[in-house]
Amino acid sequence: MMEVTTMIKYLLCFASLWAIVAADTPANCTYQDIVGQWTFQIGESGHDRSLNCTNFGSQQNPPKSKLRVTLYFPDLVVDEFGNNGWWTLIYNQGFEVVINGRKFFAFSMYKKHGKDYDSICDQTLPGWSHDIFGRNWACYTGTKGTPLTTLKYQRNSVVTEHKFTSLKYQSNTTLVGEINRSQKSWKAAKYAQFEGMQIEDMIRMAGGRKSRIPSIPKPVAVRSEHARMASDLPKSFDWRNVEGLNYVSPIRNQGSCGSCYAFASLAMNEARWRVMTNNTVQPVFSPQDVVECSQYSQGCEGGFPYLISGKYAEDFGLVLEECNPYKGSDGSCSTLQSCPRVYSTRYEYVGGFYGACNEALMRINLVNNGPMAVAFEVYDDFFSYKSGIYHHTGLKDKFNPFEITNHAVLLVGYGTDSSNPENPQDYWIVKNSWGESWGEGGYFRIRRGNDECSIESIAVQSFPIM
Ligand SMILES: *[C@@H]1O[C@H](CO)[C@@H](O)[C@H](O)[C@H]1NC(C)=O
Ligand SMILES: *[C@@H]1O[C@H](CO)[C@@H](O)[C@H](O)[C@H]1NC(C)=O
Ligand SMILES: *[C@@H]1O[C@H](CO)[C@@H](O)[C@H](O)[C@H]1NC(C)=O
Ligand SMILES: *[C@@H]1O[C@H](CO)[C@@H](O)[C@H](O)[C@H]1NC(C)=O
Ligand SMILES: *[C@@H]1O[C@H](CO)[C@@H](O)[C@H](O)[C@H]1NC(C)=O
Question: Where would one find coiled-coil regions in this protein (predicted)?
Fold first, then answer.
């Protein structure tokens, strides 16, 4: 495990020989950093998706054309000729632009600087562009501001490299007891499977150290037409039991690989295949394919559902589990090339762009379209969740040095617990990827309606192409 925990998978060079580290990207860019005028330097087009953009910008692979666009908050983009398109920020990691029939996606630039990483939000790493049908690929890089300032960059923010701990987890009955006593909503338990596990592995299981987004958007106000639509929905709903039928694929266990984003993304696609085919097609997709083969994520070091359930599934497609069975570790792409790939499309942040989400929109899309990928902040007490409706108690696990992470999971339902009529509690039903023995048979419930642990901020959905 220790060589992985160095988090340095490989070094590569770009333009002025900045060293770039590939891990769950340390970029930390906000809307404020990204909004403005950009110049995209675009390479030769006409390629297929096997195009490797890693060394784009070097002499062997120079830019051929330019596109100037202006990004307005929150989702309008206008090019130099006045054509309109749309864009979205992708967490704090980069942004995607769709204009003139082409899509552009790149991670924001970052650079190692001693022990820290500088986010360089006014530049991008080499990214991928193709037409909206997934043809005609080209590499590109983006530079914000006037093109002549290319080599001046802003250190917008600094992410400090973390010290890794070699400590092993030891559950403490006192914490479990304190959680049990301090509130009535949920129960904690000790888990034999966590006992003696490396703390680093548990942090990775919950999304990884760098998954935390320091400026998660708050849910937007509910528009009146959405409030009306939401009030027509059933009071409770569960895709595991819709008139006796289960549309959710079985619980899985991601192990100590930081691949929750892949499990959540594939679980959504699996469930939506079931929903769209009245349960006659029940695929189980391969997260190992995503871990090993996706350039839109960082293997066992993390990634994000928008880029996998949506963008990877649209650009590269998904394969069934047997095409690359789960190993839970990084490796080179070993997916059987003879396996057919299936695709998804219309991927989006619920609400249309990053930061446009809220509880009503989540319920409307959940009931009408199927389960969706959500993310939430994991605090110390969450690991001990056993049953009930989770909310963060604020109790610290003093013996296990956890860190707040952002964990991707699958939203499958909602309801209201009225067992205490004086204090009915609304909740979400969520599928985790920590095995069946964790929580309520692998699921948990969490408070609904108050953006508990930011779970109502960044839901993502996509639609299988049948
Ligand atoms: C792309 O090329 C770089 C070196 O030019 C190589 O290290 C990397 O593995 C390639 N990536 C893929 C996905 O083939
Ligand atoms: C990321 O950026 C936000 C907003 O600029 C800032 O508040 C936060 O401290 C930064 N986080 C890190 C880890 O650099
Ligand atoms: C468990 O926690 C309590 C108080 O928080 C502490 O006194 C005790 O030493 C801990 N036990 C172990 C085995 O770490
Ligand atoms: C906490 O509550 C759960 C459920 O009632 C129980 O199984 C567990 O033993 C309790 N643990 C402690 C330390 O109180
Ligand atoms: C969907 O499947 C159920 C159970 O197999 C069946 O009763 C129902 O008629 C099917 N619906 C349609 C529209 O085929």
Answer: none
The DSSP secondary-structure symbol of 320 reads B
**Helix, strand, coil abundance in the chain, percent, nearest 5:** 20, 30, 50
Tell me: the pLDDT tens digits for 150-195? 444 555 556 666 667 789 999 999 999 999 999 999 999 999 999 9
Nearest-angstrom CA–CA distance, 453 and 247: 26
**Whole-structure pTM value:** 0.92
**pLDDT tens per residue, range 383-426:** 999 999 999 999 999 889 898 999 999 999 999 999 989 999 99
How do beta strands 385-390 and 443-447 pair? parallel
- The CA 253 to ligand 4 mean position distance, Å, reads 24
In a 13 Å sphere around the CA of 377, the CA atoms on its Cβ side amount to: 18
Nearest CA to ligand 4 atom 14: 177
Which residue type is seen at 404?
Answer: I
Query: Could you say which of 260, 300, 323, 357 is catalytic?
Result: 260
